[in-house]
Amino acid sequence: MSPDATGVDAVIDAVTAVFLVVGALMSLGAAIGLLRFPDLMSRMHAATKPQVLGLFLMLAAIGLQMRTWWVWPVLVVAWIFQLLTAPVSAHMVGRSAYRTKHGHREMLTKDELEAVVQRAAAGQEPESER
Amino acid sequence: MKEVVLVVTAVILSLAAAGAIVRIAIGPSLLDRVLASDVLLAILGVALAIDMALNRHLNNLMLLVALAVIGFIGSVTVARFVAERREQSNES
Question: Which residue range(s) make up the domain with B47?
């Protein structure tokens, strides 16, 4: 950020400042959610905020400050990589949480996985398929 | 303006990292700790990105991508091998 910005530079600096502060607030929201939410599934909901929206705001701020066009594809690749890996790891953690009976079952309004698991257990399918 | 943004984000990220570390410390189960360490890693990446944006350099961009890889591999590995302890208590 330039200290004596005027015109378009001042606008870009202001937008960058807003992006940075809001992106940092996403991290704070994730931490508060981790501390306040009662079980693992709802904590996973909070934990995704800095990983996707927070990272997007940060990369947009970098792109605005660099003021070159070639940096945008690199930032987009970094963000898409995070978008591809975050659901996979969240799926693995959630699946493992369900299988090890984490979380409060009575807080769920609908449990569609229960029937699938019981049907698979009745059919004696391989362990890794359930 | 740069200093103001730096101080504000530093305070916010310090509080966020403290919260994540508290959850790592008290988290009742292993998966809670994995999730909290993932959040801690994301907070670290956000701090690196703030440094890049405010100082106008791109030195840490590959480090940012590497942090995403490390978080992905770490949480997938732990989630894969935490399974099958069915007698574990339910008060998570």
Answer: 2-80
Candidates A21, A57, A82, A56; CA nearest to B67 is A82
Task: Select the residue of A20, A51, A96 nearest B9 (Cβ to Cβ).
Answer: A20
| Number of domains present in the structure of chain B | 1
Q: What are the distances in angstroms from CA B64 to CA A7, A126, B58, B61? A: 32, 38, 10, 5
Min distance A38 CA to chain B CA atoms (Å): 8
- Rounded to whole angstroms, the Cα distance separating A91 from A84 reads 12
Mutate to test the interface with A, among B44, B63, B64 (most CBs of A within 10 A): B64
**What integer is the mean pLDDT of A42-71?**
89
Q: Name residues of chain B where pLDDT drops below 70.
A: 83-92
In this prediction, residue B46 carries a pLDDT of 92
